[in-house]
């Protein structure tokens, strides 16, 4: 069992959190990751900024832009991860072109005096090898179809990393079978169609997706729109093994005067909500006031 799968099964129901690395700086990200770890996050996703994040809504797009404006690079990202010490395993979430570009940029170059080398495809193994070296446990690539994932899948297997796929509400039939045969660590269940972003409620599609995936023996975690403890409770009660929260945390990073403190508190709230989902209550317990002493 991988570190990621063990983190979900051993800490069921699991809280999986997301931050964009470098927003507003890599130094700040380090403090924020440590705050989420203290607050009870069981897995932590770190977004490696990419200029065309097709799966992201306005909140995370803005975070990615801030990180890019701050000069965040793959090299800086990997240095950050190498410095982190957390109880929660870490994953990188990025887009396939970033992985390809890293392989291309790290490949040996011929000198000007050398004959031009033959053209070859960028090597995804270089990104995966570096990810393993700094202690990442898995990779999420929203724009990589499972049908085209074999090179990255093989590299992840070679270096002991999980490759997590996103399952959309409309995914079914042969395509669903393909994804579930390739996924490792957990299945990232997309709660609703569209892009990421905090929402006021839990989509009915969440319940349908979890029912459709119930026969597969792999942990299922639901993301896209989760923003508060009550959402977490409802999702766990519907059969998920974990909840994934990103935009609500990015809002704290962008708006709070004390983001590390507030991120830790938000993680605690979300973890409590997830735990409530296991007992079927789904709502915060309100402590009765103690009787006054005579």
UniProtKB/TrEMBL annotation:
Coiled-coil positions: none
Listed GO CC annotations: cytosol
Single Gene Ontology MF annotation: tryptophan synthase activity
Positions of region (Disordered): 271-294
Pfam families named in the record: Trp_syntA (PF00290)
Compositional bias annotation for Acidic residues: 281-294
Active-site residues (renumbered): 45, 56
Reactions it catalyzes: (1S,2R)-1-C-(indol-3-yl)glycerol 3-phosphate + L-serine = D-glyceraldehyde 3-phosphate + L-tryptophan + H2O
Keyword Phosphoprotein: no
Similarity section: Belongs to the TrpA family.
Protein name in UniProt: Tryptophan synthase alpha chain
Organism per entry: Natronorubrum thiooxidans
């Amino acid at each position: 069992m991988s570190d990621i799968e063990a983190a979900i099964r051993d800490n069921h129901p699991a809280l999986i959190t997301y931050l964009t690395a470098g927003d507003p700086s890599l130094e700040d990200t380090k403090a924020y990751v440590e705050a989420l770890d203290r607050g009870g996050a069981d897995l932590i996703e770190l977004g490696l900024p990419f200029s065309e994040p097709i799966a992201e809504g306005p909140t995370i797009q803005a975070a990615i832009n801030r990180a890019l404006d701050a000069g965040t690079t793959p090299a800086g990202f990997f240095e950050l991860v190498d410095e982190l010490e957390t109880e929660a395993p870490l994953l990188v979430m990025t887009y396939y072109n970033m992985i390809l570009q890293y392989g291309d940029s790290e490949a040996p170059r011929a000198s000007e005096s050398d004959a031009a080398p033959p053209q070859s495809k960028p090597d995804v193994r270089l990104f995966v090898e570096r990810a393993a070296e700094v202690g990442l446990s898995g990779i999420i690539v929203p724009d990589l179809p499972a049908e085209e994932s074999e090179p990255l899948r093989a590299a992840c297997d070679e270096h002991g990393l999980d490759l997590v796929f996103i399952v959309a509400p409309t995914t079914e039939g042969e395509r669903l079978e393909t994804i579930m045969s390739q996924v490792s660590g957990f299945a990232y269940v997309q709660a609703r169609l569209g892009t990421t972003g905090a929402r006021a409620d839990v989509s009915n599609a969440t319940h349908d997706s979890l029912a459709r995936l119930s026969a597969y023996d792999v942990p299922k975690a639901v993301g896209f729109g989760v923003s508060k403890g009550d959402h977490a409770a409802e999702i766990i009660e519907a059969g998920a093994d974990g909840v994934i929260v990103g935009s609500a945390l990015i809002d704290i990073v962008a708006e709070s005067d004390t983001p590390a403190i507030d991120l830790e508190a938000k993680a605690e709230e979300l973890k409590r909500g997830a735990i409530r989902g296991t007992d079927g209550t789904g709502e915060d317990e309100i402590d009765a006031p103690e009787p006054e002493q005579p």
